[in-house]
Write a structure and sequence with these properties.
The protein has 166 residues and is of the alpha+beta class. The chain has one helix spanning 2-23; strands at residues 27-32, 53-62, 65-73, 89-93, 101-104, 116-121, 138-142, 148-151.
C-alpha cells in the first residue's frame, strides 16, 4: 500500500511541475479534506497538510475561475474511503505557515523557493522504521529548484544507501 500510494503522490507532484513548465503558469498540487469535484476546485478547496484528497490545478487568466483543474484524487489510498482508518496517511511539510499547497512556477521550481516533503505512512500497519517500528515508510521530497524524489526517511540506513533520504 505504501509503495503504491507513494507512486500516486509522486506522479501527481511531477504532473504539477511538468504542467507548470508546459503552460508557463503557476500550477499547484493541493492536499485537501474538501471533497474535490469540478465545481469547487477553482477557489473553494480548503488546503490541509494532511488532506485525504488532492488536486492539481493551474492558474487561469479568467477572473471568475482563478484555476483550471488538471487532475484530482478523492479518498485515502488503500481504502477508497476518505475516512477509513486503515488507509495510507500523508503528512506534508514546508515553510512556516505551510498548509498543504506546493506551487510550481513556469521554470519548474517551487513558486516560493522553499523545499517541501510529503511523508507517507499507514498507522494501522504499524510505526515507521524511522521511529523505531517495523514499517518502511516513504517520503517524497521537492527541492526549491523542483527536483522531486521518493526516498526512505529511516536515518539508520547507511549514507551510501540510495533509498535513504538526503
Amino acid at each position: 500500500k505504501l509503495a503504491n500510494a507513494t507512486q500516486d503522490y509522486l506522479s501527481a507532484v511531477q504532473l504539477a511541475r511538468s504542467e507548470a513548465i508546459r503552460r508557463n503558469v503557476p500550477v499547484e498540487f493541493v492536499l485537501t479534506d474538501t471533497a474535490v469535484n469540478t465545481t469547487n476546485f477553482e477557489n473553494a478547496l480548503t488546503s490541509s497538510a494532511a488532506g485525504a484528497n488532492w488536486a492539481v490545478r493551474a492558474a487561469s487568466d479568467v477572473a471568475s475561475q482563478p484555476f483550471t483543474l488538471i487532475e484530482t484524487k478523492a479518498g485515502r489510498d488503500g481504502a477508497g474511503d476518505a475516512t477509513a482508518t486503515n488507509a495510507v496517511q500523508v503528512a506534508a511539510s514546508g515553510p512556516t505557515g505551510f498548509a498543504g499547497v506546493v506551487s510550481f512556477n513556469g521554470f519548474g521550481g517551487t513558486s516560493d523557493g522553499a523545499p517541501y516533503a510529503l511523508d507517507i505512512s499507514n498507522s494501522a500497519a504499524g510505526i515507521c522504521k524511522a521511529l523505531g517500528g517495523p514499517i518502511r515508510c516513504r517520503r517524497i521530497t521537492v527541492t526549491a529548484g523542483g527536483r522531486i524524489a521518493a526516498c526512505d526517511p529511516d536515518t539508520s540506513l547507511p549514507t551510501t544507501d540510495t533509498r535513504r533520504c538526503p
